[in-house]
Structures are given as C-alpha cells and as structure tokens.
Amino acid sequence: MIARPNPSRPARTAPETKSGPAADDQLDGASLGLINVRPTPRQNQSAIATVAALFIAALSAAHYASLPLPHFAAFIPFINATILVTDLITAILLFVHFSISRSQALLILAGGYLFTALIVIPHALTFPGAFSPTGLLGAGLQTTGWLYNFWHLGFPVSALLYTCLKERNRIIEGPLWSAIGWCATISIGLVLAIVWLVTVGDALLPRLFLNVSELSSLGFQVTYLNLLIVALALAFLWIRRRSVLDLWLMVVACALINELALASVRFSLGFYFSRVFSFATSTILLAVLLAETTGLYTRLALANMLLRRERDNKLMNMAAVVASISHEVKQPLASIVMRASTALRFLGHAPPEVDKVRSSLNKIVKDGHRASEIFDSIRDLFRASEQGRVKIDINEIILNALDMMHWELTEHHITVRADFMPGLPAVMGHRGQLQELFLNLIFNAIEAMDGKSGERVLSLKTERREGDGLVIWVTDTGPGIDPKRLDNIFDPFVTTKPQGLGLGLAICRMIVERHGGQMLASSDQGGGAVFEIMLPANSGHELS
Amino acid sequence: MSGHSVIHVVEDDEAMRDSIVELLRDGGYIVRAYTRAEELLARGATIEPGCIVSDVRMPGMDGLTLLRRLRAGGSAIPLMLITGHGDISMAVAAMKAGAIDFLEKPFEADELLASIAAALPAASGGTAKGSETSRQLLQKLTSREYEVLERLVSGKSNKEVAAQLGISPRTVEFHRAHVMEKMAAKGLPELVRIWLSADLSQLTK
User: Fold this and answer.
1) Which member of A187, A268, A302, B18 has the lowest number of beta carbons within 10 Å of its beta carbon?
2) Is A535 found in the same domain as A524?
3) Within 13 Å, how many C-alpha atoms sit on residue B39's CB side?
4) Are B169 and A498 in contact (CB under 8 A)?
5) Among B16, B108, B163, whose Cβ lies nearest the Cβ of A498?
6) How confident is the model at residue B129 (pLDDT cuts 50, 70, 90)?
C-alpha cells in the first residue's frame, strides 16, 4: 500500500513551500486576492482621496480642539457599540479570508480587530458618567484612560505583526477551527487581563487623568507614544506595501493618527471629533472588505461558470462521441444480422437458393469490413490529436486540474492534500490529455467520497522514480475498490455509478499508456482507493 | 401468402435498406425503398396501401415526424419503426403517436416478417381483446416489478431506474428478467407494446 508522508499537511501548504514559484502563483490565483492583488490606479486614487479628506477634517477641527462642549456621556456607549459591531464584522471577514489563504499574517490582523472590538465594551462600561457616575466594573479614575490606550494599541501592533509576517508567507497548518480558536482565545484573554489590570491595579497605574475630564502631562505623553507606534506601523506598511489590503490598512493608520492627535480634554470639540474618527477607523476596512469580497465573488463566480462550462463540454463531447460511434457501428452490424438471417431463409427454400446465399454472404463480408473501417477511422481521429507533444510539468498539470475542480471539492467538503516533489523531470506529452486524466481521477474521487461520512481527503503525491521516471499517487478516503473488481476496473463500461458510462478509468488508462506509462489501482489500508500512475520522463528535459 | 401488399422501406443506410428489401421481396411483398422520409411523404395520396417500415434516426426528417405528418395528412397506413439502441424513449413516443410497432436493431429476418404480417391491415382486429390480456399480464407483477417496468418503458436505462428507485443496477436487471418472464416478452419492444396496449389511462379512470 501507499505510504503517505506528512499526512497532517493541509492542502494548500505543500505546493507553496515545496515547489517552485510557478506553483506559488497558481495557488495565489485560486485563493482570494485581497492579500495578493496589487491595487489598481483607481483604488490608489480613492485611498489618497480618503486620506486627504481625513486630514482636512482633522486640520479644520484642530484649531478648536480644546473648545468645551456640553457633557454628553451617552455618546461613548453609542459610538463604542457601533465600533463593536463594525470591528467584529471586520474580524469575521478577515477570519474568512484567513480560512481561504491560511496566511498567518491575516490571522493576526483578524485577532487585532477582534481585540479592538472587545475592548470597547469595558471602555464604555467604565467610562465615568456613561453607566454610572464613576464607571462600572469597579473602575478608578485611570481605568478608562488606560483602556483607551490599550485599545488604540490593538490596530498598530497587529498591523506591525501583519507587515512583518506577510512577506514570509507563513501558512498555518492543521485544522482551521483550532487556529481561529487559539487566535480568539488570545484576543479575549488579552482583553480580560487588561481589564483586570486597569481595574484592580488602578491605584498602582501611572496617572493619565488629573480629574474626570482633564489629561495629565503623562496622559498626553502616553497618547503621543501611542501615536508614534501608529506612525511606525504606517511606515512599515508603506515600505512593504503590495496589496489592496496594505493600501487600506495605511488609510486606517492615517485615520488613527488623526484620532489620537485630536484626543484632548473630555467633552471638548476635539474629544467628540476624535471619537468620530475612531468610528471611521473601524469602518474603512469593513467597507473595503465588503466591496472587495463582493467584487472577488463576482469574478470567481464568472470564472467558475466558465470552468464548469469547459468541463461539461468535455463530458458532453464524450457522451456524444460514444453515441455516434455506437450508431455508426450498429448500422453494418444490423445489416449483417439481417442478411445472415435472410440467407438462412434462402437455404431453407426447396431447392436451396445457393446463388442468393452466396450473394448475401459476399455482402456480409463487405459489411464486416465496413464495421471495422469505422473503428479505424475513430482511431485515426484520436491519432491526429497525438501531434504536438510538449514538455510538461506534471505538478503544474495536477494543480490546474485541482483548480478546475476547486468548487466541486469545496462543495463536497473535501480536503486536498498535495505533496509534490519539486524539480520533477519533464514528461513529453499531450497537455489536454494529461489534464483530462487528472480531471477524471479527481472527479472519480469526489464521486467515490460522496455520501460518505467522516473525513473526506483527496491526496495527490508526486515523486521522482529511479531511472528517469515519475510516479503519481491519487488517493481518496471513499469506500475503496471491491477486491473482486480490481481486475476489470479499467475495462470500458465497467461502472458502479448510476449515471456513469464507465469510460472514465478506461480513458485514463488509455492516456497513461499512450504516454508510455502504467496505471495501477489498489485499495488503501484506510479503505479508500489508490491510483498509481507511472510515467516515463526524459532526463534531457529538466524543468527549470 | 401476403397477396399484393406493398411495404414501404424508409432507411438512409444503404446496406441496411438493401438487406431489408431483399428479405421482404423474398417474403413475397412488393417493396418500395426510400432513402429519406421526405421522398415517401412527397408521394402523398399515391402511396399504395400496405405498411411502412421506417428508421427512426435519419438525416433530414426523422421517423417520428414522418408518422405525425402522415397522420396529420389523414393517412392511417400502419407504420413500424426500427431503432438503434438508446432511441427507446423516441420509439415509445412514436407508439403513443400511433406507430404500430418498433424493432430494435439488430433484428432477424423472421422478427421483421412476423411484425409486418401482424401489422398489415388484413391481420389486424382484436386490439380490445389484446388490451384485456395485457392488463391481466400486468396484474401478475409485484409492485416493485411494476415500478421497474414503468420506468423501463418510458425509455430509462437500467442504471437510471436503479438510481431513481435507490436499488442497484443488478437488482434492476433481476426484476427486469422476472418481468420479461411473466409477460412472456422477448425484449423491451414487446414490453412497451404490452404496456401501451394495456392502455392504463383507461384503467385508472
């Protein structure tokens, strides 16, 4: 049976880390583009316009920042509730993007947004005058101020980590929910720890506020320090800017800078304005994520439709070819039967009409040749497409096939594990046929695992073989192959599927054999089916 | 034997057409051969009475359309269809549209002769009795067998029937063999004939 190394390795990681940059691009194309796609000139323009509007608003307010306005404590719970909702949705969307790309950088950013979403709750609860004159949760004078500063560290710190990690392209392996679970646990834990620190330890903390509304000089210094960290994050984002997401994170950082710069005595104009900015901070990325996700969804839906159509055409062609072949062949066969049975009648006449029988037999001979010629012409048809063999990277062909079946695989909750050996020798072959080979095998695996409970895993593994060859294993976790059927599974018209023609595996083997290779079927120890394909490769055709 | 009945053979495949013509001539019929359905239709009222044997799938007009045109033109001449595999649903539609019979390729000389003898106007009569017999035959089936038959005669393949009823194709084959045995039918065309002659639309009323 087939030993599978790295069984825990999830689908998307292996090719990215193991095979060359070509494979990397393939997978990027398959996942959502937010962290890979470069911004268009139009997106750049709208980002610049947003930043300009933010700064103009901030500058025009700056002059009157210290102007005292009426105390309206309910403003804080109101604005914080809004931020809670928008940041929470942003975090969820980022988690969704993470679940597709598995990028560690995105996970941390999502965690940052979750942290921000949650920390606004104690901030509102402890805000003096909002729910009680001194704030709930046993808040002291300094509690809310410190919460505010921790809150505003959430974005720059996670953005800094994001920037450092995204270049490394680190991928989180293992189950999705455990990664997200850990991230959420850390975010919640941090918030709880901070709440504990700033409530219980209120008396020990440096004093940010002189009284309920006025900041101490330390309070200003801490805010400036916070500002500095945001500026640092902005600088990092700028240096390593690449994608649409980076662009809008920079816009968020600018909004945050404005917010912190305006932060002033409580219930002054600057205070109210600053809170409006914090609302902007939280909404910008959400709006962008929603717009981008919708746009990407549209593009993906279109691409998916095209792929399906292309594939259906192939299947339809197949069915049409079989129908017309059988119609063609049936004609001479029917006339052979007709003539032979008529000849028997002639023999039965008294006396037997030997001349007529001879004539019938001659015609039968002709019909027999005709039937055989039909098959010759079908073979010629296939032979014509034999032309144009090219150097082929099998890893790339398999990735292409996986891409084409991406939605079916997702729909059927199938995890793909790809373990590709980098630098495989090139196969001289027919691109379309080899792609059809893997499409057929993937399709087969999906159907085999359909209706099966438990984990559904499709494993694809490539390996170099001694003596200029390569081996590909396609393994599923379906019910496996009935040992009694192993002998004839590659015969045409052998199928267990209600809709199948039973030609899939016959065609697969025909393609493999035409490439000078061999194809074997067996059952996995775990119960699934294993298809092993050996293809000869030409060492003179190394792929770079 | 069959007097002066004229058999019209419509078949695009030359060898097939030639072999049918040869057989029917030997059987004592006057035979007219046509490569296309349009040629026969063009003769209009001058078509001699007798019987038509037509292929279903042909370039140009197909056998079913030919039948409908004839009936629309007021002709009641019996028409028998010959089909390749996979045209069953079309053949069933043809029987409903008034075709007298159909034969599945490949068929033997005696089958064709027997069908034609039965189809000729002189031999007809007694369809009412036929329908009574067919109903009695159908009553011998178990409900599962009946379900299988119902789907088979609507042109479904064994595999499709299996998928619809949630049983394996092998079980369908098993039921199918039983149905054939109980109905004393040699093939699917005969099953369709019995099914249609039982005229179940009246039975359910």
Assistant:
1) A302
2) yes
3) 14
4) yes
5) B163
6) very low
